[in-house]
Write a structure and sequence with these properties.
By secondary structure, this protein is of the alpha+beta class. The chain folds into 2 domains: about 1-30; about 35-110, no CATH class. It contains 3 helices and 4 strands, in the order H-H-E-E-E-E-H. The protein has helices at about 5-30, 35-50, 100-110, and strands spanning about 55-60, 65-75, 80-85, 90-95. Strands 1-2-3-4 form a 4-stranded antiparallel β-sheet. The longest helix has 26 residues, at about 5-30.
Length: about 120
């Protein structure tokens, strides 16, 4: 029994700790798309101070999947869809199409960078 304790402390315990840390790190990165969609919908509803549900469309991942560009519309609304950018790392929402966060990520993703000679 004395010989098995060092093996347990030197091999099994660190191995178990690495597996747990790996699961936490990769578990956070493997957020389901529906969970990200819900975060975006909640952020838009909060920003617009509304209890209406938010419909998302034309979603496109940008910044190596660290951001999402798309269109939103309030459920039951007759208004057109409006654009947004959501930074999934910092949980920041941008509804202003003239804001640098939107233009730097979404216009580039759509191929409308505004630069000639591409």
């Amino acid at each position: 029994m004395i010989k098995s304790r060092p093996f347990l402390l030197q091999v099994v315990l660190p191995l178990a700790a690495m597996v747990i840390v790996g699961a936490v790190i990769f578990g956070k990165q493997v957020l389901s798309p529906s969970q990200v969609d819900q975060e975006i919908q909640q952020a838009i509803a909060s920003e617009l101070d509304t209890s209406s549900s938010v419909e998302l469309s034309q979603l496109q991942k940008v910044q190596y999947d660290y951001g999402v560009c798309g269109q939103y519309q309030l459920a039951g609304s007759d208004t057109d869809h409006a654009p947004f950018f959501y930074d999934t790392v910092n949980d920041r929402l941008t509804l202003d199409v003239d804001a640098s966060a939107y233009t730097a990520n979404c216009e580039r993703a759509a191929g409308h960078s505004g630069h000639s000679g591409h």
